Amino acid sequence: MSSIASDPVIKVEDLRTYFQTKWGTVKAVDGVNFEVNRGETLGIVGESGSGKSVTMLSLMRLVQSPPGKIVNGRIFLEGQDILELSEDEMSKIRGRKIGLILQYPMTSLNPVFTIGDQVMEAVRLHEPQPKKTAMQRVVDILRKVNIPAPESRVQDYPHQMSGGMRQRVVGAIGISAQPSVLIADEPTTSLDVTIQAQYLRLLREIQVEANLAMIFITHDFGIVAKMCDKVAVMYAGRIVEMGNVRDLFNHPSHPYTQALLDSVPRMEMDVDRLYSIEGQPPTLHDLPQGCPFAPRCQHVMDRCLSEYPDQFEISDQHTASCWRLI
Amino acid sequence: MTSNVDAITESSGNDFKLLEAQNLQKYFPVNKGLIISRVTGHVKAVDGISFGLRPGSTLGLVGESGCGKSTTAKMLLMLEKPTSGSILFEGQDIYAATADVRRKYRGSVQAVFQDPWSSLNPRMKVKDLIAEPMVINWNISKNDIDKRVDMLLHSVGLNSYHKNLYPHEFSGGQRQRLAIARALSLNPSVIVLDEPVSALDVSIRAQIMNLLKDIQEEYNVSFLLIAHHLATVRYMCDEVAVMYLGQIVEFGNAKQLFDNPLHPYTKALMSAALPSHPDIESDEEIILSGEVPSPLNPPTGCRFHTRCPFAMAECSTKVPVETIVEDGHKVACHLF
Q1: How many domains does chain B have?
Q2: Residue A5 has pLDDT above 60, yes or no
Q3: What is the pLDDT of residues A235-263, one digit of tens each?
Q4: Nearest residue in chain B measured CA to CA from A198
Q5: Chain A interface mutation, best of B202, B213, B228, B280, highest count of A Cβ atoms under 10 Å
Q6: Deepest in the core among A53, A107, A242, B159, taking most CB within 10 A?
Q7: Which of A282, A234, A242 is nearest to A26 (CA)?
């Protein structure tokens, strides 16, 4: 598939998603650009309110309107701008070309249907077929996500499964239609460490096998370090730094990225005192002028308070938006 | 129990344990039948654990969900009565003590919980939230309470202006500060911290961890930290106990345990933890298969043998005894 590899599966250009609220316009996503190739994993890291989840919802065109609206930008999926599609056409893409794995397996499965029914629904939606053959496919998919004894497990209801297994079922639905992009929104935050390790390994296997483009939405740099090829760090609706995983970890260039990496404790060594970022993440309806990180930044300059910083290139494909890099 | 005497004699050395758990067990009965209900089994949530907490130090309890770490915390907080075993506070068995001693104990052992959105009463103002324990437990004037509330708010990095606000007017990190101020109000000697930072934003976690360390220094309070995030445990703790299915499988000081993990379960936990840098690959990646067995019917012998990559024949029949490997580092495994 190397010929396609140079062509991104998904490409986002200047995406802006705004919400109209009683406090005014909230620019949840404000000019986001990125692309993901086949077989590649992008991590989108940020705190709550950074816009990472709204970015994900925009990719699926699931932003509730009103109050939300994608006001600008283009989202190319295999060359086609999905923002120009009708709602009917879009619903054929959702789940089929773009698979989605959400955070809480308990709330993303319906408690009154069996596991088999729920995976089958996704399978038959993608490829209409009689229930009998579909069930065979369901069993295959469940086996692929390492559900033991899938033939009998299909009759279980979600509450009969453990959290790790439920999350694997959600994963099974996510990949049931053999999508070309898989978006995982904090897929392991509710799982135990050893179960998380199993699940991440499984996602990795699925990705390699299907040569999937994957987008990981997370707040955890550990997930990024383990799973991703490149990273976008979001703050207040914008990507403040983006680059290959190693470049970003070795040469974090935006003060926010540096501070975040310094504030995470490490398991492999003693740290005397962690760096702590003072203050709170900003509220989006009341953003300061200039760089939104300026009030918490150690290196703040006059210019930061008045102008949003340009994007500077640090090395190949490694960019950051900070006036210090000028 | 000779331990009463032991604890007192120990108090002269550095090894004085402020709070000591001895062979704690908590079994929850499982009932069947609606009308004629009978006990059909027991969930062995905590099954014979012992540990001690030194003054001014932090002990971490690590393990996956269902390993009994929260039940242990509840027993220390006197929210669950142990099925057997004892908890000694300053050498005194609290479950055998008089009501007066127990009241004093409840004041000396406080808690900070995971989710500051549900641990603070939304209908109480900050000053009332923080003052409530003092109003109930101490016979002091309103004026003194007020002064103390101010002092506590300052020591957690807030100020007097916040007194008249309600919890919803605060961010997650600030709420956790309020919860800490409340826990400090009775001058406790022990605070149980149940996942104190895992519900907070990444950039806020370091603030709260540093605050807790400062408070420990200032008030000389001991912490019992329950956490699943290993790096947090290493940063916060002096000693660490790793739990699996209601038992402590390994115990040691933080450096020993993290630099030289011995029990296969501890190794697996560390190998499963996420790296802090993409270049860190764990030398031997141990990914455990399956899930934690049910505590209703735990495996015989070593409870970990069903998932252990190094299991031997004797592991399924013989319960491993705790072996001291180096000073202060203990492990319960047949490999040692």
Answers
A1: 1
A2: no
A3: 999 999 999 999 999 999 999 999 999 98
A4: B287
A5: B202
A6: A242
A7: A282
Of B171, B213, B276, the CB nearest to A267: B276
B283/chain A closest Cα distance in angstroms: 12
The pLDDT of residue A276 is 86
Q: Give B178→chain A minimum CA distance, Å.
A: 16
Contact with chain A for residue B202, Cβ under 8 A:
yes
Whole-Å CA distances, A74 to A35, A84, A115: 12, 9, 36
Q: What per-residue confidence (pLDDT) applies to A186?
A: 85
Say if CB B332 and CB B321 are below 8 A apart.
Answer: yes
Query: Which residues 131-160 of B are in CB contact (within 8 Å) with A?
Result: none
Asked if the Cβ–Cβ distance from A267 to B270 is below 8 Å, we say: yes
CA of A116 to nearest chain B CA: how many angstroms apart?
21
CATH number at residue B32: 3.40.50.300
Contact A219 B201 (CB under 8 A): yes
Q: What is the ipTM, given to two decimal places? A: 0.81
Q: How many CB atoms are located within 10 Å of the residue A198 CB?
A: 23
Q: Calculate helix-pair angle for B99-108, B126-137, nearest 10 degrees.
A: 150
d(CA B320, CA B309): 16
Q: What percent of chain B has pLDDT over 90?
A: 60
Chain A residues touching residue B204 (CB < 8 angstroms): 277, 280
* Cα–Cα distance, B91 to B84 (Å, whole number): 18
Which candidate from A48, A226, A265 shows the least CB-CB separation from B235?
Answer: A265
Domain A2-97+177-266+274-325 -> CATH class: alpha beta
Show the tokens assigned to A96: 């089929």
Cβ contact (<8 Å) for A267 and B230?
A: yes
Shortest distance between the Cα of A170 and any Cα of chain B, in A, equals 18
Residue B13's contacts (CB-CB under 8 Å, 6 or more residues apart) are none
Tell me the C-alpha distance between A45 and B99, whole Å.
52
Q: Confidence band (pLDDT; 50, 70, 90) for A1?
A: very low
Domain-wise residue ranges, chain A = 2-97+177-266+274-325
Q: Which of B298, B220, B239, B274 is nearest to B60 (CA)?
A: B239
Report which secondary-structure segment, H or E, holds A223.
helix A221-227
Query: Where are the strands (E) in chain B, listed by range?
Result: 19-32, 38-53, 58-62, 84-89, 92-93, 109-112, 190-194, 222-227, 239-244, 247-253, 322-326, 329-332
Chain B residues 107-136 with CB within 8 Å of chain A = none
**Rounded-to-integer distance, Cα B286 and Cα B307, Å:** 11
Give Dmax over CA atoms of chain A in angstroms. 68
Contact B228 A192 (CB under 8 A): yes
Cβ <8 Å between B203 and A273: no
Query: Is residue A125 predicted with pLDDT exceeding 50?
Result: yes
- State the residue range of the domain holding B143: 3-332
Integer Cα distance of A34 and A14 in angstroms: 9
Which chain A residue has its CA at the smallest distance from B214's CA?
A273
The sheet that has A68-77: what strands, in order across it?
Answer: A24-36, A10-21, A68-77, A80-81
How many angstroms away from the CA of A266 is the closest CA of chain B?
Answer: 5
Nearby residues of A24 by Cβ (< 8 Å), 6 or more positions away: A285
Minimum CA–CA partner of A262 in chain B: B206
